[in-house]
Specification:
α1 packs across α3 and α5 crosses α12. With about 350 residues, this protein is α+β, with helices and mostly antiparallel strands. It has twelve helices and ten strands. β1 and β2 form a beta hairpin. The chain is about 45% helix and about 15% strand. It folds into three domains: about 80 residues, Winged helix-like DNA-binding domain superfamily/Winged helix DNA-binding domain (Arc Repressor Mutant, subunit A, Orthogonal Bundle), CATH 1.10.10.10; about 160 residues, Beta-Lactamase (2-Layer Sandwich); about 100 residues, Enolase-like, domain 1, CATH 3.30.390.10. The strands form three sheets. The chain has a five-stranded antiparallel sheet with strand order 7-3-10-9-8. Strands 4-5-6 form a three-stranded antiparallel sheet. Negative regulator of class I heat shock genes (grpE-dnaK-dnaJ and groELS operons). Prevents heat-shock induction of these operons. GO terms for molecular function: DNA binding. Belongs to the HrcA family. Pfam families: HrcA.
Length: about 350
């Protein structure tokens, strides 16, 4: 059931949540009068807070205490009452540019560094998934002659991952010993052919390559190459679950919301031992038709999370992409009492940075 609030109710809900985020203390009407210029009396604020409580947006943890936001209250705050912080976004962008200014880096180092910066600036647990293998696009292929009549097929994806496959050098029809220099020239020509036809395509599209377009003298490479490429595709599509870079766990678990040791243990177990469940939740890959309508940043608050260990937490995530293709996801996990303006902004900024870096 949708809750409709008038301007006064919205303003008081906004002030209550802002104060609670800052202090972790239940909020009373007197506190709001003293801290915020709401233009109404303490009695009026108290009456509005009663209405908000009956609407399920606030609740009292104890009968004698003030009120704190519910998951539903935070949902209205995120959807209607807050604006992502531009200053936090700029701070994140600058930190990534300065902290990751390293030309000789691989993908894992890039994502690990971004996760550390995101955890530091957000004050939350940062979660960055490695690119999903089934979204990998071919960036470069190379055939390299090895010893003992073998060829090394090297494939580099757009996410900078490298895969290789050793294959036997096809025997010539005449049965002569291969000429090393001539073979190097042939391998370069075939490499050029593969790059021209496969660059920018997914590994799963290898089967559609028109091998008949290879010149007749290079046809002998076709069957071996097709077999090796298909084996690489099968290996990458059936590899282990997506790896997640996790940073900032120790600091966020010191928050008052995580005072109970049992709760901490279940969260740690999820982060360390059940990453396959977590990665499927963070990397919410939309259908092609949904991409245009999908929110840039997804915010799951408390009970909205399907995984039991994090139903007292908020998970904020956004996909990083190559063009319109989602590769992986950037996320933060923290208490529902978090700085949503800053958190949403830094997650979006980190996803934008990685999208640009991987393009």
């Amino acid at each position: 059931m949708e809750v409709r609030l008038n301007d006064r109710q919205q303003h008081i809900l906004w002030a209550t949540i802002r104060h609670y985020i800052a202090t972790a203390e239940p909020v009373g009407s007197k506190t709001l009068v003293e801290e915020f210029d709401l233009g109404v009396s303490s009695a009026t604020i108290r009456n509005v807070m009663v209405v908000l409580e009956k609407s399920g947006l606030l609740y009292q943890p104890h009968t004698s205490a003030g009120r704190i936001p519910s998951d539903s209250g935070y949902r209205i705050y995120v959807d209607q009452l807050m604006t992502p912080s531009e200053s936090s976004a700029k701070q994140m962008e600058l930190a990534l540019q300065r902290g990751l200014r390293c030309e000789d880096r691989n993908l894992e180092i890039l994502l690990d560094g971004a996760a550390q910066i995101l955890a530091t600036l957000s004050g939350c647990i940062s979660l960055i998934t490695m690119p999903k293998n089934n979204t990998a696009m071919l960036r470069h292929l190379q055939l390299v002659q090895m010893e003992a009549g073998q060829v090394l097929l090297i494939v580099v994806t757009n996410s900078l991952e490298t895969h290789s496959k050793l294959m036997d050098l096809p025997a010539s029809k005449e049965g002569n010993q291969p000429d090393v220099e001539a073979t190097d020239r042939e391998l370069q020509i075939v490499s050029n052919f593969l790059n021209a036809h496969l660059r920018g395509k997914s590994l799963s599209e290898i089967a559609n390559l028109k091998w008949s377009e290879l010149d007749r003298e290079f046809q002998l490479y076709g069957e071996s190459l097709k077999k090796s490429l298909m084996q690489l595709e099968h290996h990458t599509s059936h590899s282990a679950a997506t790896q997640i870079m996790i940073k900032g766990m120790a600091s966020v678990l010191r928050q008052p919301e995580f005072a109970e040791i049992n709760q901490v243990q279940t969260i740690v177990q999820l982060l360390e031992e059940e990453q396959d469940q977590l990665s499927r939740l963070i990397f919410d890959e939309p259908d092609v038709e949904e991409i245009e309508n999908k929110p840039r940043v997804t915010v799951r608050i408390g009970s909205e999370n399907p995984l039991e260990p994090i139903r007292t937490c908020t998970l904020i995530s956004s996909n990083y992409r190559r063009g319109s293709i989602p590769l992986g996801s950037v996320g933060i996990l923290g208490p529902t009492r978090m700085d949503y303006e800053g958190a949403v902004a830094v997650v979006a900024a980190a996803a934008d940075y990685l999208s640009e870096a991987l393009s």
